[in-house]
Fold Interleukin-18.
Amino acid sequence: VDHASGQQSECRFNIQYYQNTSRDATKKRPVILYAFKNGQTVAVCCHDEHTICSQPMDLPNNICETKHKALFYRTKVSTNLYMFESSVYTSRFLAFEPLDNNPCIHKLVLRNKSEDEVDEPCQVIVSQM
């Protein structure tokens, strides 16, 4: 967010894909979402049941565990539209919610939803760069 102008900068994340672990039978793909900030790789991490934080991280080549603060399970909704479920907090998905004091600016949060519930703020457009 550019605090001087009050404008939200374009929000882009990269996705690191991993081989399926214990969820082989499902259509959920394990991923880590990350960005580059000040020359560092920072990952999207679960802080608690509702809060997301960014943490500097060297992305692992493999993740053997099924629960990790930076690991999300990607599920396809439709063409280029996905949801990302926390591996730590089941039924909590990444979502964008407006800030209370400035509804034009959105923050990334974890949002509770059932698997079959339609929840547009939990749906994220993924495009090839």
